[in-house]
C-alpha cells in the first residue's frame, strides 16, 4: 500500500512538473507590464519570471498608480492600450476596470491555497501582497496604543498624523475599511478630528513626523516603520487589536492583451508559491497563507485582517471622499 501511495505521489508530481514545463514552453513573445511597484521590485519580479519563462520578452513601465492609470486611460481613449498586464496598488481601481470590461478573467488560475476574500471571486484580478495599515508611535511617548480607539484618547491630542484619503488610494481603502468595521463608523473619524488629528501627506511624511517627534502617533503602512525600526529609528508599529486594513497590490490581465498566454503565465507565477516567496524576499507580507512573514513582523495568526469588499467600495468611493472632506476640510 505504501509503495502504491508513493508511486501515485511521484506520478502526480511528475505530471505537475510536466504541465509547468509545457506552460513555460507555450508562453513566449512580447509582454508589457504597467506597474506601480518600486523600480527595484519590478525588475526583480521580471527577472524571476523570465527565469521560469525564458521565451517571454517582458518589459515594464513604472509610475505611481494614479499616473499609470492616467497613461492607460489616454491609451484607451486613443484605442491603442499598450499594456498586457497591470500590477498596481489597489483592488478598487481593478474593480473599476472590471466593471468597464477592461479585464480578462483567468479562470484556470490556481488559487486553491488562498482563503476566500483575497482574490476577485470572478478571477479578474489577484492579490499579490498584503500591505496593511496600522499605528506607528514614537518610543518616547508614555501611552503605547494597542487599539484604534486609543488614538481618540486625551494623550494623543494634536499628536496624530495620517495620510488623507483625498489624495491616497491606500488611505481611502483604510478609511472605508475602518468606517465599515469599527462600531463607531464615521463617528470614529469625527472623534479623531476633535482630538486634533492631521490628515495630510503620504506615508513617508507620516513616518518622518513620528520619527522626529513632530508628531508622536500616526496611521501608516506596515513595512515602512518596521524597516526603519530595524535601522535604529525610534518608532514602533502596532497591529491594532480590532484588526487592520490592507491593500493587496493586485495583478490583472487587460482584455486587450496581444499575448494572453504569456499574460496568464505571469499571473500564474505571481500567485504561485515561488512568486509569493519573492514577495517575502522583497520584505512584504505575501498574500499566500503558507509563506512566512518578513523579519520584524509577528506571526501571521496575530494579524487580523478587517473585511473589505472592493466592489462595494467602488460604488461608495465618491460618497466616502465627500464624507471625509466634510469632517477634515
Automatic annotation (TrEMBL):
<protein>
    <submittedName>
        <fullName>Iron(III) transport system substrate-binding protein</fullName>
    </submittedName>
</protein>
<dbReference type="GO" id="GO:0015888">
    <property type="term" value="P:thiamine transport"/>
</dbReference>
<dbReference type="GO" id="GO:0030975">
    <property type="term" value="F:thiamine binding"/>
</dbReference>
<keyword id="KW-0732">Signal</keyword>
<dbReference type="Pfam" id="PF13343">
    <property type="entry name" value="SBP_bac_6"/>
</dbReference>
<feature type="signal peptide">
    <location>
        <begin position="1"/>
        <end position="26"/>
    </location>
</feature>
<dbReference type="InterPro" id="IPR026045">
    <property type="entry name" value="Ferric-bd"/>
</dbReference>
<dbReference type="GO" id="GO:0030288">
    <property type="term" value="C:outer membrane-bounded periplasmic space"/>
</dbReference>
<dbReference type="GO" id="GO:0030976">
    <property type="term" value="F:thiamine pyrophosphate binding"/>
</dbReference>
Amino acid at each position: 500500500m505504501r509503495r502504491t501511495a508513493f508511486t501515485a505521489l511521484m506520478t502526480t508530481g511528475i505530471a505537475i512538473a510536466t504541465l509547468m514545463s509545457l506552460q513555460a514552453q507555450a508562453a513566449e513573445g512580447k509582454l508589457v507590464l504597467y506597474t506601480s511597484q518600486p523600480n527595484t521590485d519590478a525588475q526583480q519580479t521580471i527577472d524571476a519570471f523570465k527565469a521560469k519563462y525564458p521565451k517571454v520578452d517582458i518589459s515594464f513601465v513604472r509610475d505611481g498608480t494614479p499616473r499609470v492609470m492616467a497613461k492607460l486611460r489616454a491609451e484607451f481613449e486613443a484605442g491603442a492600450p499598450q499594456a498586457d498586464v497591470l500590477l498596481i496598488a489597489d483592488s478598487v481601481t481593478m474593480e473599476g476596470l472590471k466593471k468597464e470590461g477592461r479585464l480578462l478573467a483567468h479562470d484556470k488560475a490556481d488559487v486553491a491555497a488562498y482563503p476566500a476574500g483575497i482574490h476577485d471571486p470572478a478571477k479578474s484580478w489577484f492579490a499579490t501582497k498584503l500591505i496593511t495599515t496600522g499605528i506607528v508611535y514614537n518610543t518616547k511617548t508614555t501611552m503605547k496604543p494597542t487599539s484604534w480607539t486609543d488614538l481618540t484618547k486625551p494623550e494623543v491630542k494634536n499628536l496624530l498624523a495620517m495620510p488623507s484619503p483625498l489624495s491616497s488610494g491606500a488611505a481611502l481603502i483604510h478609511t472605508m475599511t475602518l468606517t465599515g468595521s469599527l462600531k463607531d463608523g464615521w463617528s470614529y473619524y469625527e472623534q479623531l478630528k476633535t482630538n486634533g488629528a492631521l490628515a495630510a501627506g503620504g506615508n513617508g511624511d507620516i513616518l518622518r513626523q513620528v520619527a522626529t517627534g513632530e508628531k508622536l502617533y500616526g496611521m501608516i503602512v506596515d513595512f515602512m516603520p518596521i524597516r526603519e525600526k530595524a535601522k535604529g529609528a525610534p518608532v514602533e508599529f502596532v497591529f491594532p487589536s480590532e484588526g487592520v486594513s490592507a491593500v493587496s497590490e493586485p495583478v490583472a490581465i487587460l482584455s486587450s492583451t496581444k499575448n494572453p498566454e504569456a499574460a496568464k503565465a505571469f499571473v500564474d507565477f505571481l500567485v504561485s508559491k515561488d512568486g509569493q516567496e519573492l514577495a517575502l524576499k522583497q520584505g512584504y507580507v505575501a498574500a499566500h497563507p503558507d509563506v512566512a512573514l518578513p523579519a520584524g513582523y509577528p506571526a501571521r495568526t496575530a494579524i487580523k485582517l478587517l473585511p473589505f469588499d472592493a466592489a462595494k467600495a467602488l460604488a461608495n468611493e465618491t460618497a466616502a471622499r465627500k464624507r471625509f472632506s466634510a469632517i477634515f476640510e
